[in-house]
Amino acid sequence: MAAIESKHDDAKRDEAKKMIEAYLGRLRRLLSGVNQQGAGEIIEELHSHILERVEASGDGTSSSVATILAALGSPDELANEYLTDNLLARAEASRSPLQILKSLFRWASLSVVGFFVLAISVLGYFLGAVFIMVAALKPFHPQAAGLWLLGNGAGDAEISLRLGFGGVPTEGRDLLGWWVVPVGLLAGCAVVVLTTRLALWCTRLYRRSRLLPRS
Amino acid sequence: MRPEAPRAAEPPDKWEVQLRKGCLELAILAALWDGKLYGLEILRRLESDSDLIVSEGTVYPLLSRLKALELVRSEWVESDAGHPRKYYALTGAGKRRVQVMAGMWERFSSSMGKLLAPLARGK
Predict the structure, then answer these.
(1) Do A52 and A112 fall into the same domain?
(2) Enclosing domain of residue A24
(3) CA-CA distance, B90 to B77, in Å (whole number)?
(4) Residue A78 lies in a domain
């Protein structure tokens, strides 16, 4: 009889262990946006918390574990709390446009201000990329790529950055010629750096503001 | 007028939840004033000393945020319990910050006290 009961207890404990593993496993998957060391630490800290709570309760059954896990909130809620901060912190640390855009996307999903910062940053990076691409494509389309002043004969003129895919314009003038290579590279890099600076500055303000109570 | 004390069966008052949430950062930093504590100790300190019943799921991400802001630092310490614990301690910046916050809190609560005094007299 005692043997049967102890087997029953073992089964219950196994079930509780599986619940904890499933909970932490889901959290780990949700935290895939966090760097591996950071995610590992979060999981280990919460695992330690759960084990300690289980010990304190003196009851390793699945129902008591379920209560302990419920007190922590769902893995989704937890991951959301961690990810927002972490992405913003990583954006600040890495300074890579890709990382910044990733965190801005997240911020944009949370607030209108975030959306505007994202829109301006996308525009900035796009402009920077076009400048750099014109410079890079000039050797391949020497006649057509460049900064063109396009006239339509009626006195209206527009300035156009052309990558050179559309052929050589019939009217107008290539303003920079080969100078577009260094100028485009410099201007492109400057725009990218400025956009990064601006986005990081906004991100930093936002992170500081998160210290205040959120409504 | 509704009676002030909420009964246990009532859902938590939204304003009260926000109020508690807003104070949580100060409460955590203050709990660390006397020395390093690990997550569960901080939670227990908040429960026993302050009656600040907080959702456990908000404390851990908040600790990680405070760490990112370099107001606290953390270290893993092996324990007799068999699993390591992550201890948190105030940094120099954290100590200065919690003092500033405590000052703000004093000023705020004393002016609120003055404002609320007539209500207390009216009881």
Answers:
(1) no
(2) 1-73
(3) 16
(4) no
Residues A44, A58: Cα–Cα separation, whole Å: 21
Cβ distance B56 to A73 less than 8 Å, yes or no, reads: yes
- Is the CB of residue A46 less than 8 Å away from at least one CB of chain B? yes
Q: State the average pLDDT for chain A.
A: 81
Instruction: For residue A11, give how far its alpha carbon lies from the nearest alpha carbon of chain B (Å).
Output: 22
Residue A208 within any structural domain of the chain: yes
Series of mean pLDDT values for 10-residue runs along chain B (123 residues): 49 79 90 94 85 79 88 91 90 95 95 91 72
Domain assignment of residue A16, yes or no: yes
Gap between the Cα atoms of A16 and A13, Å rounded? 5
Which member of A41, A78, A211 has the closest CB to residue B61? A78
Is residue A105 located within the same domain as residue A182? Answer: yes
| pLDDT score recorded for residue B17 | 78
Based on the domain organization, do A100 and A204 belong to the same domain?
Answer: yes
Q: How far apart are CA A208 and CA B65, in angstroms?
A: 10
Note if the pTM is more than 0.80. no
Residues A212 and A139 in one domain: yes
CB spacing of B83 vs A52 below 8 angstroms: yes
- Range A185-203 average pLDDT: 89
Interface touch A85/B64, C-beta < 8 Å: yes
Is the pLDDT score of A7 beyond 70? no
Residues A50, A143, single domain; the answer is no
Residue A31 token pair? 């935290």
Report which secondary-structure segment, H or E, holds A98: helix A97-108
Give yes or no for a contact between A146 and A160, defined as CB atoms under 8 angstroms apart.
Answer: no
Q: What residue of B is the nearest CA neighbor of A208?
A: B69
Structural domains of chain B ordered from first start? 14-122 (1.10.10.10)
